[in-house]
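Lab notebook, bench 4. The sequencing result for the construct came back, and we need a structural model before the next group meeting so we can plan mutations. Quick request posted to the team channel:

Model the 3D structure of this chain.
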Amino acid sequence: MINSIRHWFEAKAFGVCTWWGNKLGIKTTTVRMYFIYLSFFTVGSPVIIYFIMAFILEHKNYFKPFYTKKRPSVWDLE
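Done. Here's the predicted structure in token form:
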């Protein structure tokens, strides 16, 4: 039962820790543990950062045009 709950939560959660784990090349559970530990030590401020990152990841299609435009190289003479 615990495994089914964990699987559901990992599939339906925001995916912030999974995204960070993939970007940094570390396990997702390690990232989650760091969020938990930091939340205890800093009285919950990483939770606010987590929700901001979740908002950005959920709406990344709206932010994508701003940072995916390919700029020409400095060395192109066109």
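Helices lie at 2-12, 16-24, 28-41, 45-58, 60-67.
Will bring this to the meeting.
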